[in-house]
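Pilot study result, target chain (330 residues):
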Amino acid sequence: MNNTKRLKKLIISLTIIIITITGAIFVISEKQNIDDYISLLNYKPSSEIASIVIQDGMTPYTKKVFYVNHPQIDSKSVFAKECPNNSETIVVLGCYHPYQKGIFLLNVTNKQLYGLVQVTAAYETLHAIYQRLNTYQKNKLDKELLNYEKNDLKNQVIIAQINNFKKTEPGHVLNEMTSLFGTEVPSLPKGLSAFYHQYFNNRKVLFNFYSDYQNSFTSRENEIKSYDNQLTSLKNTINSDENQLNSLKSGINNLQNTLNNYRTQNQVYSYNSLVPQYNNLVSSYNNLAHSVLTLINQYNQIIIKRNSVVLTEQQLTQAITTIPKPIKSD
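Predicted structure:
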């Protein structure tokens, strides 16, 4: 009888604990929903923000998380205040203020960088989504992220970014990896692909945006390297030919002195026999000099082309740079 009473008390106690835990989870979940409701109550996205949702293929939940953070596309001056960056080596294109306090995007209007704002929006929204995951979801995702990084990640650009995060933001590496893999890696294992598919209808669109605007930089960097290689090769050839010209000129001068001596001494036979050699040297010199001039013109034309590409690259870089250039003093 006593055992039966104890068993009933134990069952009642366990039931109360389960109800309490379930209630706590429900309250936490509902609190987030209530906070979201309040945040969205009077929010109306701009047409640009609404377009990003469509362009990125955000699912309804992702759209909600994006809007909850009242995303805004800011000019450089405003963006620099919301997303301060004191590093000259790191480019900040957007930022997420933790606990759903805002997503801020740099307004990039250069047409060659189209897609950058869209990718940045997805990147920052994934930060907000990661922060909303419960412990079980986060642990599961973290294991998949680390497994992919350890065994399958080969992209050296992504690896370099992760290594940089390990140095600068050691406590947020997995959060950053979530955004990196979701926007900049085209093919992922099934588990990770399924995770991202909850939030974006077609992640390939994001990668294509990323690939296109990255190509605006890499193609020009490769073009500059190609021009530099051509300039180095031409410079070496010009220097070698100029040394040969100096040698030919020295030989011509020596023959010229000899010819002058023969003429002074009236040594007609010796003079005439040396004239063909002299003429051949002069002809070789003139031909080589013409060739050098052609190479120099070619070199200068490449310099003009290279400088044009450098200028375009600088303009692209300036379009995404929020750190003001220092003003030189007199």
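One observation from the pilot: Residues 66 and 125 are 6 Å apart (CA to CA). A full batch analysis is planned for the follow-on phase.
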